[in-house]
Amino acid sequence: MPNPSSALALVQDRQISPRGEISKLQAIAVQQLAVIRQLHTSAAIRALLVGLTLHRIKAASTHGEWMPWLKKNFDGGKNTANRYMRLALVFVERTKVQRPDLLALPGDQIELALEKPGSAEKKLMDKAVKFVGEKTLQELLEEHGIRDDAKHGKRTSSRGDDAGDQDDDGSADAQTVQEKFNEIAGLFESARKATADKANWMSFSKQQHLQLKALAEDAAEHLATLCAKTHGRAAKN
C-alpha cells in the first residue's frame, strides 16, 4: 500500500522547493486554479447543451426507444441525464429560449459558434454563457435545487424533475402526482396537529384565530369547488 508519510516527505522536500522559488510556485498555483475554474465552467455549459440535446432526442424517439438508448449510450447514467435535462429546462425558462435558438443548437463546435457574430448559434451560446456565469456545474445544479437522485432519493426540488426518467409508460408522472398528493395531504395533517394542541392554539391571538379560520374556510371551499368540477356536484355534499 502507498505510504502517505513517504509521499508527504517527497512533495514537501525543501531541496525541490527552495524558499527562493516560492513566488514562482505561488504564481503557478494561482494560474492553474484559474484554468481549472475555466474548465469547470466549460463543463457546465457543455452539460447544459447536452441536456437540451437529450430533450430533443427523447422527443424524436419512438415508443420504448428512449430508455434503452439512454442506458446503452449515456455513460453518466439515468440520474446524470435527468439532472442535465432539468438544468436545460431551467435554462430555457429563465433565458426565454425560443424555437429558433434550439434549432441552432451547436454540437461539437461550441468554440466555432462563439466566433460567429449575429448567428443563431452565437445567440444561444451567449445565453448559455450568461446563464452559467463563472459557476461550476455542481454550483449551478445546487443553485437551482437539482440534486442527484442516487444520493438523495427520488424526490428532488427543481422544476422538470424526472425530465429524462420517464419513457412512454407514464410511470414517472404517476410517481410525481403521488408525491404532490402526499405533500398537500401532509400540509393539512401538520395544520390539524398544530391546532389540535390546546396550549398551542391558545397561544395565538384572537386575530390569528380569525385568520386561520378564514384560511381554513377558503381552502375547504376551494377543494369543494375542484371536486365538484372534477367529479360532479354530488362530490360537494
Structural features, described:
This protein has about 240 residues and is mainly alpha-helical. The chain has twelve helices and no strands. The protein is extended. About 5% of the residues have low confidence.
Summarize the structure.
With 237 residues, the protein is mostly helical.
Using brief descriptors, characterize the structure shown.
about 240 residues; mainly alpha; 12 helices; extended
Structural class: mainly alpha
Question: Strand portion, in percent?
Answer: under 5%
Main sheet specs: none
- Uncertain stretches of 5 or more adjacent residues: 155-161
Order of helices and strands: HHHHHHHHHHHH
Shape descriptor reads extended
Q: Number of helical runs? A: 12
Radius of gyration: 27 Å
Helix content: 55-70%
How many angstroms does the end-to-end distance come to? 74 Å
The strand count comes to: 0
Q: Mean pLDDT, as a whole number? A: 74
